[in-house]
Design brief:
alpha/beta, Rossmann fold, five-stranded parallel β-sheet, 16 helices, 10 strands
């Protein structure tokens, strides 16, 4: 999703630019002021509560604002993202927004801030006051509002600067020129946005072959937990000894070992368009682990492709590999092969259900020549990348 916080002091032109941005990028528009006025106009219970608070000169609580924002996001599932106009206004609200978006399996893409000198802002607001008749658009009140804006929002700007999400935009000049600068910043951000693919499927589905091909085509870094683990075994490390013992029993390697290896790879190889995680996560717990790892780098799981083939076909493939020089320890007996297929059904199938609920999951037929399977996969991934941007 494309989630943007549009910032700027009173008179910066957020309203005008917001309308143009939501039309161009098909975004849901969230203005806290509009949401409050809508609830009051509709006479909802929440609206009556808000009207009472405002009538007494009070401030609407963050709890109420979050309820309204969440309701708006949930009812805007047909949109490609969200434009937040003037929210978050405080550092506390910035943390709240992060938590809310995390709950909804998304995150903020960037904060675009319209930068306009105080003198120009004052001129614009006084002119607006003459046209609209608004009593608060006088020089004394304007000065107070600008000071208030700077005092409250400067910590918010710092918050997003630390996360490399803050983008200042010159807000002076013809409206079309400012809009072009906003769009250019968004497009640049989209080009840099990571696309992280989980390539799943039962043993023998061809994840290794297809994963490497996809990585080469789309400039992803291919992370195979199996390859990382085998590398540790070959190097004879302490981790490798533990991994070998688990393999010989046909068991899954501990999550602690897998986490250490994946995190190390991600830190070293980050000059790519994203990562392909082959065969990981295998359990619900590992899906939470992967989310945590990715969020530490300011990203998440973009899409999940599950390769599927009939069980008898999978057994034939694994048996054939077990009799070749590419044999794995866990391919050497029918008992181990069946055990691994059963483990996939019991432990990994629930992970696929989790991603289905997040609308990130698709099944691709893994039967046929490798070239045909790769064509199907490439088309699926390319389509997913376009939708995500």
């Amino acid at each position: 999703m494309l989630n943007i916080a549009l910032f700027g002091p009173p008179g910066a032109g957020k309203g005008t630019q917001s309308q143009m941005l939501i039309e161009k990028y098909n975004l849901a528009y969230i203005s806290t002021g509009d949401l409050l006025r809508q609830e009051i106009a509709e006479g909802t219970e929440l609206g009556k509560q808000v009207k009472d608070i405002i009538g007494k000169g009070g401030l609407v609580s963050d709890e109420i604002m979050v309820d309204l924002i969440e309701k708006k996001i949930i009812t805007s599932s047909d949109k490609k993202g969200i434009l937040f106009d003037g929210f978050p206004r405080t550092l506390v609200q910035a943390y709240i927004l992060d938590g809310l978006l995390l709950k909804l399996n998304t995150s903020l893409s960037c904060m675009l801030s319209l930068e306009v000198p105080d003198e120009e802002l004052t001129r614009r607001l006084i002119e607006r006051g003459k046209v609209s008749g608004r009593e608060d658009d006088n020089e004394e009140v304007i000065k107070f509002r600008l000071v208030e804006y700077k005092n409250k929002t400067s910590p918010v700007i710092g918050y997003y600067q630390e996360r490399n999400l803050y983008v200042p935009i010159k807000g002076v000049g013809p409206i079309p020129d400012i809009f072009t600068m906003l769009c250019n910043s968004i497009e640049l951000m989209l080009e840099k946005e990571w696309f992280n693919l989980v390539l799943s499927g039962p043993p023998g589905a061809g994840k290794g072959t297809q994963g490497r091909l996809l990585a080469q085509k789309f400039n992803f870094y291919y992370i195979s937990t199996g390859s990382l683990l085998r590398r540790e075994i070959k190097a004879g490390t302490d981790l490798g000894v533990k991994v070998k013992e688990a393999y010989e029993k046909g068991e899954l390697v501990s999550d602690e070992i897998v986490i250490r290896l994946i995190e190390r790879e991600m830190k070293v190889h980050n000059n790519v368009n994203g990562f392909i995680f082959k065969g990981f996560p295998r359990t619900i717990l590992q899906s939470y682990i992967l989310d945590g790892l990715l969020r530490r780098m300011g990203m998440g799981v973009s899409y999940v492709v599950e390769l599927q083939a009939p069980t008898i076909e999978l057994i034939k493939r694994l048996d054939k590999r077990g009799r070749s020089d590419k044999a794995r320890t866990y391919d050497l007996s029918t008992e181990l092969i069946i055990h691994r297929l059963e483990e996939y059904d019991t432990k990994t199938a629930p992970v696929m259900e989790l991603y289905k609920k997040q609308n990130k999951h698709v099944v691709v037929n893994a039967v046929g020549p490798n070239e045909d399977i790769f064509d199907r996969l490439s088309e699926t991934v390319q389509s997913a990348m376009k939708k995500s941007r």
